[in-house]
Amino acid sequence: MQIKYTPQFQAKLEDIFAESDYVLRYEKGNFQAGYCLLKDTKIAIVNKYFTAEGKINCLIEILKSIELDASRLSEKNRSLYIELTQSQLQL
What range defines the domain where residue 58 resides? Predict the structure, then answer.
């Protein structure tokens, strides 16, 4: 899958989080990986000072590392989620 570093693609990734159990927040922080994942409370925090490219890369990493119930996602978001988690991404 070819990644597009655009605000529209970032919004699509944020929509996946909106339909899942996870809460996505953008905050300042000193995260080693650029994000912090609190699995017990299902909160994902991304560094708000990252560029759009950095935020998109973090969101994709988070989606690959967590388990989401794909049946709760809309058809469009489900296909994007499956494509992101099962394919090798081309940057």
Answer: 7-85
